[in-house]
Design a protein that fits this description.
Layout: H1 8-19, H2 24-38, E1 46-50, H3 56-63, E2 73-75, E3 82-87, E4 92-98, H4 107-113, H5 124-134, E5 139-145, E6 159-161, E7 168-170, H6 179-183
Parallel strand pairs: 1-2
Antiparallel strand pairs: 1-3, 3-4, 4-5, 6-7
The chain binds zinc ion.
């Protein structure tokens, strides 16, 4: 079965180029995205919320204009293989999910999806053939409305220069940037010269690593 404008083989190749390899979940996701699109009235400006951070976000990014970078696709990782596509103004749309009853009619796909077979024992070619044959047969669609707080793009917020690191950040985040509030997911290995403190921002009383007194032990 085709995936939108692509044959299965074409999409498999596109998936390989974008994702590194043609993950079964990405191919399944392709059918899910196309099914959701088929429920959108012609000309609807839509956005997508994806409930898994595995594979499915890439299916959305390959088959729609929604991406994580333009913020028309968001991942709310609930651990479920599902996506909601909705009118960006009204919030009305559909949610497409893997139906665990229907999938049992496709035992090879069910065994893979529910991880009932060890990876080494999987017949990947057979799995791909079944995914191609089934299309969206084991998914279900439900109508959803996305609450208003998830709609619309936030106004561009005021930007300041963080007095601790000297980088720009949205001032709504506080007197210093979130990185300097302890959320940075790394340890800096390189020395940096101390940043200028913006004259418009009250320096925050912060223990700065470079201002630490020399070690005296
Ligand atoms: Zn900072």
């Amino acid at each position: 079965m085709n995936i939108g404008q692509y044959t299965f083989e074409e999409f498999k190749e596109i998936a390989r180029q974008f994702h590194g390899y043609p993950a079964p979940g990405l191919l399944i996701g392709g059918y899910m995205v196309e099914l959701a699109k088929s429920h959108m009235p012609e000309g609807t400006l839509f956005e997508v919320i994806v409930e898994s951070n595995k594979c499915l976000p890439d299916a959305v990014q390959l088959l729609t204009l929604c991406s994580t970078g333009n913020n028309w696709m968001r991942v709310v990782n609930l651990g479920r293989y599902a996506l909601s596509m909705f009118d960006k103004y009204t919030g009305e749309g559909v949610r497409v999910y893997i139906d665990t009853e229907k999938i049992e009619q496709w035992p090879d796909i069910a065994d893979w999806f529910l991880k009932r077979v060890a990876k080494a024992d999987q017949d990947t070619d057979l799995l791909f053939a079944k995914i191609k044959e089934a299309g969206a047969a084991y998914t279900s669609v439900e109508r959803v409305t996305i609450p208003e707080r998830f709609l619309g793009h936030k106004q561009m917020r005021a930007i300041g220069v963080c007095p601790a690191c000297g980088e720009a950040f949205p001032t709504n985040d506080g007197p210093i940037c979130r990185g300097c509030q302890g959320e940075a997911p790394y340890v800096t290995m390189d020395q940096r010269s101390a940043p200028l403190v913006s004259p418009n921002i009250e320096p925050f009383p912060l223990r700065r690593p470079w201002a630490r007194p020399p070690c005296t032990t």
